[in-house]
């Protein structure tokens, strides 16, 4: 996979060996881990239910003790010798299998585990991870940076508009190169201290059980090289891929006079001889309506789809093609050959004489055109949304605009080309990214507020209980007589 280097902040998202489970190496590697891990584990569970904690702890110790005595032969032989010694006979345990010793230790540890303070919630590495660094992802990152959210953007650098030289219809940046546009955005965002960007391909986004994590939503995000980070929210800005036909000449010239969007590239070819490439006659009227203000010399290449049935389906819109002198050429295209001009040798408002491309067919005369408007299908660039369970509608990820493009999967947002609102351009990518950032930020604030309120009411409850106890103790001390006096009724705790 080709990755455009753009790292503006060096973020190490790989978890170093020995840190993954949060235990220091000397604990993890030593046999002490046999005892400490279950203790901490049950301590964590004790937050919810002490009986469950004790149960877990006991069963873990039981299995550990089995392993322990299976693998530590010297200890076993020592025990055997002890069993045969007269000292052993004096002990009160008449069947002191080694298991008993460990069992007692387990019981003690279980009790300890349930009274130990609970392990604090695992802190996520980031408030949000944004997957994809096109305009949608960058816009989301910028929105989060402005309110000091901790966010990481991971990008594999396969931008949809990479084949095109310049970006158009992006206010304030009309005609700048795509690379410059992205560079400037990154440069500006990198000035903010709480966000970071890195190259990489995300291979898995996994929702972690929210009850265990204690957060409203909690994700583990894995990259192709084994790096892993955690985040409370995920923004999928993973874009679309254009599915181009294998006809020779299409892929080679994609984005340079063979384009899909009049707003992006149409003006540059205004008034030139245009071909319409969409595969089917049915889609041609829509293409003509889109482009008529720019081009009137139109030939539709319909690749054997012009038949009675299709014309019936089109109804009166078939006549519309006639009204505008759109030529329908139904022959099968063999190849498209560029006969004039190399990539990027044209500029806005520059006009050329003659056709730039020759269209060769399986039979008959070739046709010359200056460029082509296309209607090829698209597909999701990434499977992350599907794997997470995001609903797919008409090839896009369903996202609720009213709630900042939040998908049906809690904590996951879908922005830019990849979502299903049927709009694919840079301004739309910016808008959706920004909207998701606003909603995501407010959602996190709401969740934090909720947690704070819960904690403060729990503290208030505890305070109340303690106050009542103190009052009772004070009253006892005042009313109670001294030891030896008639009114003495014993100590408060007695
Ligand atoms: C030839 C062409 C020219 C265009 N010209 C214009 C124009 O002039 N003006 C205009 O407004 N629009 C234009 N568009 C449309 C524009 O490119 C898109 O609307 C825009 O790029 C959408 O932005 P995005 O951020 O959603 O997706 P993209 O820009 O495609 O970015 C998606 C990013 O996500 C990354 N990604 C995907 N999966 C993963 C993963 N698993 N892990 C990490 N990263 C991942 C990809 O590598 C990519 O970098 C053009 C499109 C084409 C095809």
From TrEMBL:
Residues 127-273 form the FAD/NAD(P)-binding domain. This is Thioredoxin reductase. One of its GO terms (biological process) is cellular response to toxic substance. One of its GO terms (molecular function) is oxidoreductase activity. It comes from the Eukaryota. Coiled coil: none annotated. Keywords: Flavoprotein, Membrane, Oxidoreductase, Transmembrane, Transmembrane helix. The chain crosses the membrane at residues 58-79. SUPFAM superfamilies: FAD/NAD(P)-binding domain. Belongs to the class-II pyridine nucleotide-disulfide oxidoreductase family. InterPro entries: FAD/NAD-bd_sf (IPR036188), FAD/NAD-binding_dom (IPR023753), Ferredoxin-NADP_redctase_2 (IPR050097). It comes from Podospora australis.
